[in-house]
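Notebook entry, structure prediction.
Reason for the run: the old model in the group folder had no record of what sequence produced it. Starting over properly, with the input documented here first.
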Amino acid sequence: MSTDSVPSHLERIATDGYTVLERVIDRSLVEALNEALLRLEHDRRIVPGGNLFEGDRTIRIYNLLALDRVFEAIPVHPAVLPVIEGVLDPGCLVSSLSSISIDPGEDAQPLHADDTLIDLPRPHRPVVCNSMWALTDFTEANGATRIVPGSHLLAEKPEFGKHYPSIAAEMPKGSVLIWNGSLWHGGGANGTSQRRVGIAMNYCAGYIRQQENQQLGIPLERVRRFPPRLQELAGFGTYKHLMGHIDKRSPVQVLLDRDDGFRSVWDVVDSARTD
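New structure, fully documented this time:
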């Protein structure tokens, strides 16, 4: 995807609440991700959550950044991150990174908004922006994510478990669905004989608490190997030179032993005033 197309995707997210980046993920990465998920499911003996939201026939693997290096390519992907940054801002964070594999016979997930627990009057500016990576084809028959276009602009949230008209966000393998966290959506029912596999790469604004605690959930020795941008996205930087600092130093300096040139917002403001 060229940078010229980012504004058109941002316009669609603002209007409809979602957009699809078709076939932007390299096939070799898709296959490596699929292989890693199957291995983790087997080795960790993952089973369905067994509740209405997580499903009885859906395999979910959480905290993927802590489990295999192949997943490190996801949060910083050059075709996806610029769109996310356009919806939120460059100070956005990884909120959660998990897989969602819907097996045959699974029912549709209740429609919901991903920012439901953030108690702000609706509609509001985006504070959550999420994405679904299609590691298999997503079709209406096999459980493609169902969405209610334009619902991010409504003043209310969906009533949990209630039926609402929705459409399937169908997309070919290697594509990515991106949506405003206020959009009503949910996993579809899988009426086929094949598993539908996706990875939920979720982001939040830098001033919002992350869904998965990245700082405690990922071993520091693993984070030290992350490239600097991924360290920032995982929450080891600061937001606007202030939020997240440790005794007026960045977490990168204190926890990862790397000098990132951090200056507090007050130092930046003072420097600008004297200049």
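Summary: Helices lie at 6-16, 27-43, 81-87, 214-217, 220-223, 228-236, 251-255, 265-274.
The old model has been moved to the deprecated folder.
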